[in-house]
């Protein structure tokens, strides 16, 4: 049995194309992987630790090999819990809209909490940076208002997929797949066609994920 962690980052819920396609993927995944566990992490209804105060002081204490104060130790437990929750999965699905060419701030906040030295990556002068979350696949289900794919002329403005791929590779992922839904702001007919195509691909991909 595998554990799939679905990380949802759009606040639009029923109006979000990324969530709509993700649910199609997950429904098919449950059908084809009946013994697997699927866990949903809705970042808009999840207590992500604020990365300030005692938490950030605790991080720098670790980096400088200093002991934590009691307040720092207590605060850091929330970070460790969030990281453990993430690392305990075997497979990952992220649904995310493009915001200002990048990702929603809730997802960025979550990433800033889980990407920590000694937990999701290590560094040594001899080997450089080494990711610690390995041998696990990740699927990015990305909705965008415009078109940013190859040949559109908007490639350089896409900071959504490149950022997610960069940060996931940094912490050890090598199997990263992207399912793109675009352009969502080009009228109902174009939008519906893009969503339908993405759902068809989602069903295909769910079988082998």
From TrEMBL:
Instruction: Spell out the HAMAP family in the cross-references.
Output: Azoreductase_type1
Q: Which organism is it from?
A: Candidatus Protochlamydia naegleriophila
Q: Which Gene3D superfamilies match?
A: 3.40.50.360
Reaction(s) this enzyme catalyzes, per UniProt? 2 a quinone + NADH + H(+) = 2 a 1,4-benzosemiquinone + NAD(+); N,N-dimethyl-1,4-phenylenediamine + anthranilate + 2 NAD(+) = 2-(4-dimethylaminophenyl)diazenylbenzoate + 2 NADH + 2 H(+)
Give the stretches traversing the membrane: none
Q: What is its EC number?
A: 1.6.5.-, 1.7.1.17
State one molecular function term (GO): FMN binding
Q: Give the gene name.
A: azoR
| Domain Flavodoxin-like fold, first and last residues per copy | 3-204
Q: Does the keyword Kinase apply?
A: no
Subunit annotation: Homodimer.
What superkingdom heads the lineage?
Bacteria
Q: What class of enzyme is it?
A: oxidoreductase
Protein family (similarity comment):
Belongs to the azoreductase type 1 family.
UniProt keywords (A-Z) are: Flavoprotein, FMN, NAD, Oxidoreductase
Supply the Pfam families for this chain: Flavodoxin_2
What InterPro entries is this protein classified in? Flavodoxin_fold, Flavoprotein-like_sf, FMN-dep_NADH:Q_OxRdtase_AzoR1, NADH:quinone_OxRdtase_FMN_depd
Cofactor(s) recorded for this entry are: FMN
Task: Give the binding site residues for FMN.
Answer: 10, 98-101
Name used for this protein in its record: FMN dependent NADH:quinone oxidoreductase
Coiled-coil positions are none
How the cofactor is bound: the record states: Binds 1 FMN per subunit.
